[in-house]
Design goal:
It is built from ten helices and ten strands. Strand 1 and strand 2 form a beta hairpin. The structure holds adenosine-5'-triphosphate. Adenosine-5'-triphosphate (ATP) binds next to helix 1.
């Protein structure tokens, strides 16, 4: 990594950001020397990253550099992919998520995930939100209240309160994505992982999700993978830039290039590769 600072490249109006410290004072989730492999292919290598409490961290980088692979390692979603393996440590409140005796279902409850394409269940709006609390056996004094709270938190309640028994599939794409966020929130996670949550949405629906992320940040730690650098610059407190490298055997793999406050990454990147990427020279 060079020490010289490179020119600013992306200027966008950011949401009001916290004045985050240079290093997260309280990392909720940390990667220590994380490698993710698919069979013999070590797709992502040696990642060290801290995700700070009540912060939004964006993972950016060119296609295929391993952003989604890394994101899935944060809540053991890669366990569901045959041949996938994670080495190194992913610490959640200092506990290794891949340690002995850790229940991956509980991991996914505490660290929820929202996908690129809204994926509501073919059930009613109400049942989509109530699904997680029911299957995880959460003790709930009033399911109606919990559903209302989650939908309100996901900025969807006013639009759906009169049709809770209607099919979730009848909602617009943006509403479906907010429903998926409500479904994630309903099981009371600490962290929400978002894998390109706006890539299937129009600009208005995208802007609603970005607003929602800002309001969720007070209660949750959010990690978002995005291809949209303007989006990262608008919403994230910190940004990690990954890129593909080639090892001595000619094998491509994803590596972390630079991680810092979003303003620093976009306005004063230290590494030339970051500067080239955000100025559109590759990717
Ligand atoms: N299920 C899988 N089996 C084998 N290889 C995979 C699998 N999923 C991803 N890969 C490979 O791992 C590498 C990283 O892929 P990944 O999808 O994580 O990158 P990405 O940065 O999220 O890409 P994009 O921005 O295009 O979504 C790529 O070489 C990809 O082909």
């Amino acid at each position: 990594m060079s020490t010289e600072s490179h020119k600013p490249s992306v200027h966008v109006q950011a949401y009001h950001r916290r004045d985050v410290e240079d290093f997260p004072p309280q990392p909720v989730l940390s990667c220590e020397g994380v490698d993710v492999s698919y069979g013999d292919f070590r797709a992502v290598r040696n990642i060290d990253l801290d995700f700070g409490l009540n912060e939004i961290t964006a993972l950016i980088g060119p296609s295929g550099c391993g952003k989604s692979t890394l994101l899935r390692s944060l809540n053991r979603m890669n366990d569901l992919i045959e041949g996938a393996r994670v080495d190194g440590k992913v610490l959640f409140h200092q506990q290794d998520l891949y340690g002995k005796g850790v229940d991956p279902i509980e991991v996914r409850r505490r660290i929820g995930m929202v996908f690129q394409k809204p994926n509501p269940f073919p059930k009613s709006i109400y049942d989509n939100v109530a699904y997680g609390p029911r299957v995880t056996g959460m003790r709930v004094s009033s399911m109606d209240d919990l559903v209302e709270e989650a939908l309100t938190r996901a900025a969807l309640w006013d639009e759906v309160k009169d049709k809770l028994k209607g099919s979730a599939l009848g909602l617009s794409g943006g509403q479906q994505q907010r429903l998926c966020i409500a479904r994630t929130i309903a099981v009371k996670p600490d962290v929400i992982l978002m894998d390109e949550p706006c890539s299937a949405l129009d600009p208005i629906a995208t802007s609603r999700i970005e607003d929602l992320m800002q309001s969720l940040r007070d209660d949750y730690t959010i990690v978002i993978v995005t291809h949209n650098m303007q989006q990262a610059a608008r919403v994230a407190d910190r940004t990690a830039f990954l890129t593909a490298q080639v090892d001595e055997h000619g094998q491509r793999f994803g590596a972390l290039v630079e991680f810092g406050r979003t303003s620093q990454i976009f306005e004063r990147p230290v590494d030339e590769r970051t500067s080239d990427y955000i100025s559109g020279k590759f990717g």
